[in-house]
Design a protein that fits this description.
Chain lengths: 506, 377
């Protein structure tokens, strides 16, 4: 169906793709696997007409094609679901589809478009209503709307760029059902991911890229998570972690009967009680949008608390502002490292002292001491293996994993005894995620109290001493690590049965 | 991470050009914009029957032709420098300050009041005092829309423009009644202010006065504030990303208010310079607020943008813009075109320069090899 042969793409200073061959058969899910920067995105951008290859040829359905723009790609029959959805929030699904057809909105007759959306939606079980506004839809629904938009244009090869990065386990399951329906219809799929479990589950064939070159071709039957990771990273990767037994100490962070309102005034956090003791990791799991974000923001002082109390190191928080809460001994790794965690247009050094910028020795008599800042940031770049040309590189130029390491380095090295860590590994490569997990366990062994909020169930189950499951703003259940199983936790996450599986303190 | 080999470098022809241009990347586009604007201006001059070459020669010699011309250009550029430095501070904090006009006026009024109240204070004290008074007046006039934006979400573009109008009418009001020169009828001006407040003329035989030194000091202080102090780091952090700044524990609302206060203070000092460095040594409202401010509250935005929002480069761009203003007068005299045409010529330059800013950013990033790195992620 698709044959890309000898694709080479050079950018000044780097070869993003070098002699890459890539073939997709009809009815097949072909996974492109690789770390960030391995060249996956470049390859599919070439396929979608966003880049032009320096060398190589593309054949689609038997005939050579010259895809010089995305609109040519769509006309050829190639569609793409971007990681960041290309939908206008304030329009309905039908209007978004009409927009993609290139007709002026005011003139387009939406009636036939609506009808056809319903047909397509039914055919593939997408459950997309043409008249729903995008802003009303959950992330999973938006993604289905994107897929529908592509199918509406009768795309025969669909590229999905990290489609599961934004989804929760149940949504991923739903997505895979949809994908299977598409392949059953004879369409070809290019699936991009670096989550090995998913890749093993959905792929028919796997092509692994490393440093712009194909480092392996295999199928799930012939490979294992370990062998795939080896091909991706170029060295063996440790999946199972041994967590040392240690007795937790004093409570460091106590959340009592906390009620918090969300952005639209709804009750987002509902009488939540959590405490975290020194030397333990308490993991909060839940489907995205069940109050975890609001909980974290309320604890650090970014969001108003309606009622209830937060104690840090035994003292109640009286002035709930990030500055004050941080001064009480809480460090905060926010979710969305580029929006809340770091300043992209600041240098690595500046981001590393973003919290302590007004403290000695970084400032003397109001003036920044560049020597101290440089010394400190050199040390942190070394200690946390941050891969950057130097400390005066703009942070946005780093890979996602290294940006996250900058945030982690800043927050973990500040001397705070309690760490509030939200979505620390979302969207970053295996190597960096592995590294951050290690750092969390090191902090635990040093007696820090860690509240870990994550939508990655595997991650929370692997690292936490205790799990707290949140659903619609309330605590659905508390489980100790020994007793937790994915099935039980998954059920609690979907709000099934409010059971205290094991009445552990928490 | 990116690995570079000799082999790969040879493939990338684009990089070598970028390398050569890199130090000049920030200058190429604005220079081209000015040239393009002057080309359009040449057509305008031609339409009016004037020889563009003669005109531009007159413009150049009027701006930079000799000591007196250089001094005249410097005098025109002082308020632009001061307002421009303030604009650097505000814009880098993510606050759009269109209120320079009003801040100049309020600075001038407060400085005038101080000079009227303390006419007998010795000159070495009174001169700094009226400059500080100008800063305080402008600073307060800036802090008001700053606080309104920070704590109530009032759009600062609208509020600062409104504050301009209020300041303009307030000046008219004062000069028609309370502050009007005793015995004068219907001329909106104060009496000649205390000589102890006059900005001293610098040695060298030109009309250039101490205001240029004040402007340079403010520019250096502005640079130190923005790029060398922890306060400036906070302001720039808020300007780049208020969310991350807040999460890191920075006070976002206070930063926004401070930025507009500093910005207004710089403009207010410009107001004081316009009063005490003027030939008549008084506050004059005749001809409307724009006649008093010389539109520096608006043109300072242009010079700050032209200077890449860097206080020290803003000094340079302000001087060049001052040359346009000073040279425009001699252009008008030599080729005999209406004054409106000279103003239009300035306008064309402003439009081209402001319009080219986005392109400049792109060229700079391209020269740094940045665009490709981003795309590869």
């Amino acid at each position: 169906m698709l044959e890309m042969q000898g694709i080479t793409k050079r950018f000044p200073g780097v070869v993003a793709n070098e002699d890459v061959d890539f073939t997709v058969l009809p009815g097949q899910v072909h996974t492109l696997l690789g770390e960030n920067g391995a060249g996956k995105s470049t390859l599919v951008k070439i396929l979608y007409g966003l880049y032009h290859p320096d060398e190589g040829s593309i054949t689609f359905e038997g005939s050579p094609v010259n895809i010089y723009s995305p609109s040519v790609a769509i006309r050829t029959g190639i569609g793409m679901i971007h990681q960041h959805f290309m939908l206008v929030d304030t329009l309905t699904v039908a209007e978004n589809v009409a927009l993609g057809l290139g007709k002026p909105l005011g003139l387009a007759n939406l009636q036939p478009i609506r009808r056809r959306i319903r047909e397509v939606s039914e055919e593939f079980g997408l459950h997309v209503d043409p008249d729903t506004y995008i802003w009303q839809m959950a992330v999973g629904e938006r993604q289905r709307a994107e897929i529908l938009k592509a199918l509406y244009r009768n795309v025969r090869l669909l590229v999905l760029d990290e489609p599961t990065a934004v989804l929760t386990p149940p949504e991923v399951t739903d997505l895979f059902v949809t994908l299977r329906q598409l392949t059953a219809d004879g369409r070809g799929l290019v699936f991009i991911s670096h989550k090995l479990n998913e890749v093993m589950e959905i792929s028919d064939e796997i092509t692994v890229l490393r440093d712009g070159k194909v480092s392996g071709r295999t199928t799930p039957a012939e490979s294992s998570r370990e062998s795939l990771a080896m091909m991706m990273v170029g060295r063996p990767v440790e999946f199972t972690r041994t967590i040392a037994d240690q007795t937790p100490g004093e409570p460091k962070l106590e959340v009592q009967n906390l009620r918090v309102r969300g952005d639209r005034g709804e009750l987002a956090v509902h009488d939540v009680n959590i405490d975290v003791r020194a030397g333990e990791i308490v993991g909060i799991v839940g489907v995205s949008g069940n109050g975890q974000r609001e909980l974290a923001e309320a604890i650090i002082g970014l969001r108003e608390i309606e009622s209830g109390q937060v104690n840090v190191d035994g003292d109640p928080v009286k002035t709930p502002t990030p500055k004050h809460v941080r001064a009480m001994g809480l460090a905060y790794v926010p979710e969305e490292r580029m929006k809340y965690g770091s300043i992209g247009d600041f240098t690595v050094a500046e981001n590393l002292i973003l919290v302590d910028y007004d403290q000695a020795p970084y400032v003397r008599n109001g003036l920044l001491s560049f020597n101290s800042i440089e010394e400190r940031s050199e040390q942190l770049v070394g200690d946390y293996s941050i891969r950057t040309p130097n400390t005066s590189t703009l942070t946005r130029k780093l890979s996602g994993g290294n940006i996250q390491k900058v945030v982690i380095a800043r927050e973990f090295s500040g001397g705070a005894e309690t760490l509030l860590v939200a979505q620390p590994t979302r969207g970053i490569d295996i190597g960096a995620a592995e590294y951050i997990h290690e750092q969390l366990l090191i902090q635990r062994s040093q007696g820090k109290a860690i509240l870990l909020i994550s939508e990655d169930l595997d991650e929370v189950m692997a690292l936490s001493d205790r799990l707290v499951v949140m659903y619609e703003g309330s605590v659905m259940g508390r489980v100790s690590r020994e007793e937790a199983t994915i099935e039980q936790v998954g059920l609690l996450m979907s709000g099934v049965g409010e059971l205290e599986i094991s009445p552990v303190a928490g | 991470m990116l690995k570079m080999t000799d082999n790969q470098q040879r493939f990338s022809a684009g990089l070598d050009i970028g390398r050569l241009l890199r130090p000049f990347a920030g200058l190429v586009v604005p220079a081209a914009a000015v040239i393009a604007a002057l080309a359009v201006g040449a057509i305008l001059l031609g339409v009016f029957g004037a020889n563009p070459l003669t005109g531009y020669r007159a413009l150049l010699s009027g701006a930079f032709g000799g000591p007196d011309e250089l001094a005249a250009t410097a005098l025109k550029s002082i308020p632009l420098m001061l307002v421009g430095v303030g604009i650097c501070i505000a814009f880098r904090t993510g606050v759009i300050n269109i209120g320079g006009e009003g801040q100049i006026i309020m600075g001038a009024i407060v400085a005038t009041l101080v000079a009227l109240a303390l006419p007998d204070v010795p000159r070495p004290i009174l001169v700094p005092l009226v400059m500080i008074a100008g800063g305080v007046g402008g600073g307060i006039w800036g802090a008001i829309p700053g606080a309104l934006k920070a704590y109530s979400g009032v759009n600062e573009i609208l509020s600062t423009i409104m504050m301009n109008i209020i300041a303009g009418f307030f000046m008219s009001f004062l000069l028609e009644d309370w502050l009007i020169e005793p015995g004068a009828i219907r001329i909106q001006q104060t009496k000649r202010l205390s000589q102890n407040a006059d900005l001293p003329i610098l040695p060298g035989g030109t009309r250039l006065h101490l205001g240029i030194v004040v402007a340079l000091i403010v520019a250096i202080l502005g640079y130190l504030l923005l790029f060398r102090s922890s306060l400036g780091m906070r302001l720039r952090a808020v300007g780049h990303n208020p969310h991350a700044s807040r999460a890191a524990g920075m006070k976002v609302e206070m930063s926004i208010t401070q930025a507009l206060a500093f910005s207004g203070a710089c403009a207010g000092i410009a107001g004081a310079v316009l009063v005490f460095g003027s030939e008549s040594h008084r506050l004059i409202g005749e001809g409307g607020p724009l006649a008093f401010t010389q539109s520096a509250g608006f043109n300072g935005i242009v010079t700050a943008l032209f200077g890449g929002l860097h206080p020290l480069f803003t000094v340079l761009s302000s001087y060049l813009f001052g040359g346009m203003l000073a040279g425009g007068i001699s252009l008008q005299r030599v080729v005999q075109v209406p004054q409106a045409l000279v103003i239009a010529l300035n306008g064309v330059v402003v439009v081209f320069v402001v319009g080219s800013l986005k392109l400049r950013a792109r060229v700079q990033r391209w020269a740094e090899g940045d665009i490709q790195m981003e795309d590869r992620a």
